[in-house]
Each structure stands twice: as C-alpha cells, then as structure tokens.
Amino acid sequence: MTASFATFGRGPWRGLESSGSCESSDGSGVYPLADLSTRHDFYLALDELFARLDAALPRHPGNPCGSCNLCCTAAGLSQHVVSDLELDYLAARVGSEKVEDFRRYAAREEGAAAVCPYYQGGCTVYAHRPYACRTFGHYREQRTVLPGVCVFRGHEREFAPEEYFALLPEARAIHQLKRDYLAMRAPGPVSAGGGHPAVNLAHLDATDPVDRAWMELFLGEYAAAEASACQGRTTAMQQMTLGLARSGQENWEGAREAFLRAVTLAPEAADLRYQLARAELELGAFQPAAQALDEAVRLNPQHAPALTYRGYLELAQGQMEAGIPWLLRSLEVDPSQSLARLRLGVALSRLGREDEARPHLERAAAEGVTAS
Ligand code: SF4
Ligand code: SF4
Predict the structure, then answer these.
(1) pTM, rounded to two decimals
(2) Averaged over 53-61, what is the pLDDT?
(3) Which end of the chain is more exposed for a tag (fewer CB within 10 A), N or C?
(4) Contact yes or no for 271/183 (Cβ under 8 A)
(5) Which residues surround ligand 2 with Cβ inside 6 Å?
C-alpha cells in the first residue's frame, strides 16, 4: 500500500455512551472559536492553523524536499484527502480557476490530471497548500510507504490509525474546523438529497461528540445522536446535527429551535435555511417555510432541494402556476429528480397544459415514479 494524504477512521463507536443532557459547552472544541459566522472567518482561522502547524512540524536543514514531485502525482500516491474548506480556501486565496481540476485530481477521478494542477516545477500554492500536503513525509500511517526517492524516508514518524488525532499536530483542530465548515459550504450545484453536508464517515473522530452524533445519525439512532450532539460545542454544525437528530425523531418543535439557532450562527448557509424550512412545514407553518426557502435560494440559487421544496410548497397550497418555475429551475440543476418531474407534470396537467405535462409524466413513470 502506498502512502496517501488520507486521514483515517477512528472507532470504536460502540461503548461511548452519550449523556441525556443537552447542555452544549464551549470548552470541548480545539480550534479557537473567535467569530466563525462567515466563510471568510473560517479562511482566517485556517491561515492561523497553518501557521501553528508549520511551526510545529519538524524542520530539516537545507529544505531538501521539492527535488522530486512524486507526492504531487497520481503515480506517487494512492490518494489525497482534501476537504471542502481547503478547496474553498484555495479559491479564496489564489483564485478558483484550478480548484475543480485539483479536486478531481485529489479524488483520482477518471480522466483527471496525473500531476497536481498546482505543480509547475514546484508547488505554486505553497503558502495555501492543504493540510495533507504539509504533513506528508513527516508522518506515515502504518502499512503505507513513502515514495522510494522521498528525502524524508527513514526520518518520518509512523503512526497507527487510532493515533492520528493525538499525534499529528493540529489534526484534531483542522478536523473540527473542516467539519464545522460543512454547515456553510459555498454556493454551487446541490443535487436532490444533498440538503445537508456529506460528512465523511470514514474520517470521524470517535472522541468528538458531534462526530459521534453523525455516526449515530447514519445508524438511525436518533435519540443517541441528539444526546451526543448536545455534548458538542455550540456551532452552526452542532446545532444542525441536533436539528437533524430531532427531525429523525419527528420532534419538529425541537428541530426548528435547533435550526433557528444554527441560522443565527451561520447566516449565509443555504443548507441551514432549507432544513429550517422542512421543520416549519412539518409544523404547518407555510409562510415561515417559504421565507426560509426563499432565503436558501437567494444564498445558493443552485440548491435543488430548496428549489424543489419551494415549488412543492406552492403546489401544496393549490398554486400550480406559481410552483412550476421553481420545479423547472430545480430540474435544470439536477435533471435526475423523478419526484420533482412528476410534480411538474401533475401541475402542468392540472392547468390543462397536457402537451407540456406528458413528457415529464412519461419520464417520471419510466424512472419508476407515478402519481398514486
Ligand atoms: S497542492 Fe502543492 S504540495 Fe499539494 S499536491 Fe499540489 S503541488 Fe503538491
Ligand atoms: S515530500 Fe518526498 S515525495 Fe514529496 S516532493 Fe518532497 S521528497 Fe518528493
């Protein structure tokens, strides 16, 4: 197994019992909280974190690294793990032109470049390179190897997967920062079913209450997830997690309370408005739900779940004409949404626009969704 810029799953998840209280604290986080209510705040926090990291990493006389580019190529490494925060940070600091290519390269997507797009005789984004690039060579997970020519070979510190957070400098801090940033991801296409951030379950920290809550959400253990989330430090992500746990238990009042608090903590986050709207609608509050969705779409015009839900909200109130543009916009972002397509077909049909309705109804039916 070659080395990778990966982080590693850290169980065990069982046997870490959550308390039943919901007193979130401000003491359990490891990155300085300061004011992290905007994406820009997170980028500043990452600047500071990288400065601390660079000061903590071992130094080698004469800076021998850089003589080869193997850790910047698909041939040298099995993968790079780069977070949404680090990608958005790169876009903010050096421009967005190469970010998507870099994301595809790091994920080793088919057809992606074989060499990092930021490599041109050296790293052209050195001051802003991701955490994994900074720690590579200094640390190596057990059962992986550094490239044969790497100057760090033989000098690196080997670690077991469960030692990752304790051993690597700033590992726990950047993990929390990356995770908490997910609640406020930058505007861009969000497909159906993507109304909350995709937390990477393989990279969770079992000792962190919010991470534990995500694992419990994944397992469908909503009461345990609520108890875990309650133990986390108060952030937009922690409140969102709490809201999702309460939604899973159909405690819509409690969910609304958590999402409202999350929105206050991260006013520019479209996902949080969308989740708030879902809770409002479950409580029969059409107007607040519509307001939350309008705000979600204003913050991210390509948020397909919010667009679809906004259209559905109109249809549910008998406003076929008003619902159609929302559904059309949503299908532009994500044409694979069979249910949105069915609703669009039904709305058109109710308005007597059968010729326009037919292709949508037929396609929805071909995809296995029909009006009951
Ligand atoms: S960002 Fe820089 S250090 Fe990281 S893989 Fe690309 S060129 Fe190499
Ligand atoms: S860290 Fe190792 S593999 Fe990467 S450029 Fe430096 S010497 Fe080469």
Answers:
(1) 0.81
(2) 84
(3) C
(4) yes
(5) 65-66, 68-71, 136-137, 147, 150-152
